[in-house]
């Protein structure tokens, strides 16, 4: 171990050494500390190893709380946060980074020139600089991308490059990311976490900030818009649950863009629009995540659900701009690396400043002969990259199998030199070991050049296996520090304090999809709460010291469980002692059954899924509550599943109570909150009606025990007892649960709120009178206000069930109509019918 001058050697780097045959980022071959790391070592002097580990654990928790890469909540096998940050950064000197940045600017410029030509005049093909079959065999080369007669237009706006060092310390480009490079959000989140972990160290090391890159990002997208002053930029993401969705939500929020899915957008008369509550709002710039072929089902892949029909025609008409241009992913295929060195000389009149890994296309006879002579030493890859297709199977083939494969289809494969990546220290929590490094760097167009992020996303792996398949490859990531030579200027995305702002009230520009998801988020939260309280009421009675046969309401509550679809009706038998053993085994399995719609676990999963789709519009605390509920409300392998279920249901109800508080006190009264609360009020009315029907109208539960359990599940027992003590009578119960407008759990209270929401939702000013949803809500409120609960109770107790049944039936049939009216009015935007043929 080198360096008597390393004062913290024993604290953090004790026992560390790089891998033989690889360039080590920290120590030279002679064991000397590299200059960039000397500054880091000096800055961490005096920081004990235990304190360093404690801070790292805090940084990990921060990432988990922010859930940048949180997996699809619909997948119970992927509950853990997949993104892990290493405690040590990758440290690079400013002088060295200037060379890297210059090379990446040159490469991005070159790639954009190549793309403009391939999708335009195709002079490179006609003049023999690129073989025609290299381009025309490309499965991603589609004619709709091409505009041979149009004026030159930039295609590559945002660029990513996977780079690594060879054993001699030289940087090489391993892969180009031209489609829609991901990872900038991960890099930013890593920096945020590290700034919490080592704020003084970052300041003392003079680490370059990432904000200038994102400012250039914003400025460039604004320049793409026809009206730069009021440009509307929409970030088009893939569906919620996709690998990059949380990065998209994070960046859209950070940059101030509207996050949208394809269903949020529409093309009308060749113009691109965002579907909002106020109608169709024009979109100026689209920052896309989906692959090019998935962007327009009308002209491209009709099997994709991520596209916007008519998008290509809108782009051709120049009513909207897009980054990156459709077809930009062509150059992600490694086949082009075989030609880029020559293309640089042709188009730029200079060699590449950073070479890409040596590449041979097997379609060239001379290259194929060379490849076959060294097939065991080279990495064989498909010539054309297909996103989402894992080609690691080629690593498992023998020399003879690879040879036969290449000879059978030579144009379909390339061979590349293997790069032995550099090593850097990683923190295991106690020890420091080495791992292999790959860096994804980012560049965004800026004027006539590109702005390179000072740093990037470093990924580490314990082995030398390929890291180019996806960002989730590898074991963890590192923050990348570029050390400034002087003081670091304070740059921020925040608006200058002296810049005047026009006061605004938000709301009507809420995307219709987001409004719909908020509406159903509200409904699912109330549904989960009702089911949780019902299941807890049953479980508490089943675990009571009292004999089950002496709990008269238990049989009724079990019947209600069956009525609400939580257990099979066959378990509702007359003898409670017969069903007790079966229920104790059945109920936990039924509660945690995620595959059956309507179960409590499925409802919680739906709640988390809906929240994920509007993650960019929720506060961090709200999202944490939902994420933790979804994480915690999972089955365990405990022998006592019934008691564990009861504990987890209790925890879930506490989380739902916290969520209700966040909804009530943590959301601005925009239309997002209004739709959420509308959904909650509508669902609570429906749940109250169903509970009264199941317990009283169909269950015949009019005795004190049954009425008490009904009030318990309805969360109104304390209020009832404060008024009537323990005198349970049907009329008083119906009054409290149905007509009492001072009870926040009553039907009347919910319908007052529904009527208010319906009246305050956006509407077309030219439409006279009330909208359908207003009339339905007002009609239901009028109905419930005319109810005489004592008269209904007397009739029911005297054998006349019709008044109660008729009332509940009217409510049960009217509420879905109200929900449908809201959906049809605000969540769907259909264009006018067009005649496709003459009469």
Automatic annotation (TrEMBL):
PANTHER family, per database record: BLR2978 PROTEIN, BLR5612 PROTEIN
Name of the protein: Uncharacterized protein
Residue ranges constituting the Circularly permuted ATP-grasp type domain according to the UniProt record: 89-461
Domain DUF403: residue ranges: 510-827
A Pfam family reported for this protein in Swiss-Prot or TrEMBL: CP_ATPgrasp_2
Organism: Lacipirellula parvula
InterPro entries the UniProt entry points to: ATP-dep_Glu-Cys_Ligase-2, CP_ATPgrasp_2, DUF403
């Amino acid at each position: 171990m080198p360096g008597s001058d390393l004062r913290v050697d024993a604290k953090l780097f004790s026992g560390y050494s790089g891998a033989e045959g690889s360039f080590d980022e920290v120590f030279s071959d002679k064991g000397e500390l590299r200059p960039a790391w000397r500054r880091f070592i000096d800055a961490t002097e005096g920081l004990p190893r235990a304190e360093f580990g404690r801070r790292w654990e805090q940084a990990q928790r921060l990432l988990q709380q922010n859930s940048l890469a949180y997996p699809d909540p619909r997948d119970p096998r992927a509950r853990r946060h997949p993104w892990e940050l290493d405690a040590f950064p990758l440290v690079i000197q400013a002088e060295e980074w200037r060379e890297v940045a210059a090379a990446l600017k040159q490469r991005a410029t070159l790639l954009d020139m190549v793309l403009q030509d391939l999708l335009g005049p195709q002079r490179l093909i006609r003049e023999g600089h690129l073989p025609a079959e290299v381009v025309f065999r490309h499965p991603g080369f589609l004619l709709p991308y091409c505009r041979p007669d149009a004026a030159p237009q930039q295609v590559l706006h945002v660029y990513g490059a996977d780079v690594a060092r060879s054993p001699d310390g030289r940087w090489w480009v391993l892969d180009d990311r031209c489609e829609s490079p991901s990872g900038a959000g991960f890099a930013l989140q890593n920096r945020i976490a590290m700034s919490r972990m080592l704020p003084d160290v970052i300041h003392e090391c003079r680490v370059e900030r990432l904000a200038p890159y994102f400012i250039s990002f914003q400025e460039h997208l604004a320049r793409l818009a026809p009206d730069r002053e009021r440009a509307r930029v929409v970030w088009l993401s893939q569906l919620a649950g996709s690998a990059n969705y949380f990065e998209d939500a994070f960046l859209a929020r950070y940059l101030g863009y509207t996050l949208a899915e394809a269903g949020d957008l529409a093309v009308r008369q060749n113009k691109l629009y965002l579907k909002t509550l106020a109608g169709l709002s024009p979109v100026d710039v689209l920052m896309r995540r989906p692959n090019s072929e998935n962007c327009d089902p009308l002209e491209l892949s009709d099997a994709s659900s991520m596209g916007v029909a008519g998008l290509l025609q809108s782009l051709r008409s120049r009513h909207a701009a897009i980054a990156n241009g459709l077809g930009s992913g062509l150059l992600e295929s490694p086949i082009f690396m075989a030609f880029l060195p020559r293309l640089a000389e042709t188009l730029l009149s200079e060699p590449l400043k950073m070479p890409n890994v040596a590449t041979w296309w097997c379609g060239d006879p001379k290259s194929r002969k060379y490849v076959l002579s060294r097939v065991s030493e080279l990495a064989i890859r498909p010539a054309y990259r297909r996103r989402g297709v894992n080609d690691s199977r080629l690593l498992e083939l023998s020399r003879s199998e690879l040879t036969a494969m290449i000879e059978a289809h030579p144009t379909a494969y390339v061979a590349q030199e293997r790069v032995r990546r550099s090593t850097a220290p990683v923190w295991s929590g106690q020890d420091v070991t080495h791992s292999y490094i790959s860096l994804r760097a980012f560049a965004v167009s800026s004027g006539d050049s590109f702005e390179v992020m000072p740093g990037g996303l470093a990924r580490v792996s314990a082995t030398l296996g390929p890291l180019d398949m996806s960002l989730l490859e590898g074991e963890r990531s590192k923050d990348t520090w570029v050390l400034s030579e002087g003081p670091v200027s304070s740059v921020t995305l925040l608006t200058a304090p002296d810049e005047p702002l026009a006061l605004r009230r938000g709301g009507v520009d809420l995307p219709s999809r987001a409004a719909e998801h908020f509406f159903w988020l509200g409904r699912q939260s109330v549904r989960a709460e009702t089911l949780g309280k019902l299941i807890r009421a049953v479980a508490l009675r089943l675990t009571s010291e009292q004999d089950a046969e002496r709990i008269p309401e238990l049989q009724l509550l079990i019947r209600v469980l069956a009525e609400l679809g939580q257990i099979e009706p066959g378990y509702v038998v007359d003898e409670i002692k017969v069903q007790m053993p079966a229920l104790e085994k059945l109920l936990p399995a039924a509660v945690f059954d995620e595959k059956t719609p309507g179960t409590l676990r499925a409802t919680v999963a739906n709640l988390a899924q809906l929240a994920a789709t509007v993650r960019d519009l929720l506060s961090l605390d709200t999202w944490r509550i939902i994420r933790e509920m979804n994480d915690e409300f999972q089955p365990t392998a405990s022998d006592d599943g019934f008691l564990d279920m009861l504990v987890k249901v209790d925890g879930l109800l506490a989380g739902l109570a916290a969520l209700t508080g966040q909804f009530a006190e943590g959301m601005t009264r925009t239309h997002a909150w209004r739709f959420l609360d509308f959904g909650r009020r509508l669902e609570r009315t429906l749940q109250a009606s169903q509970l009264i029907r199941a317990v009283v109208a169909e269950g015949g539960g009019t005795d004190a025990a049954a009425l008490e359990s009904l009030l318990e599940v309805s969360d109104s027992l304390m209020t009832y007892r404060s008024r009537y003590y323990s005198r349970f009578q049907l009329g008083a119960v119906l009054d409290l649960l149905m007509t009492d407008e001072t009870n926040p759990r009553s039907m009347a209270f919910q319908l007052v709120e529904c009527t208010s929401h319906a009246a305050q939702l956006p509407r077309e000013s030219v439409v006279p009178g009330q909208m359908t949803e207003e009339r339905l809500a007002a009609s239901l409120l009028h109905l419930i206000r005319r109810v005489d609960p004592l008269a209904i109770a007397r009739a029911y107790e005297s054998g006349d069930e019709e008044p109660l049944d008729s009332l509940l039936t009217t409510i049960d049939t009217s509420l879905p109509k109200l929900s449908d009216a809201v959906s049809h009015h605000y969540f769907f935007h259909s264009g006018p019918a067009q005649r496709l043929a003459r009469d």
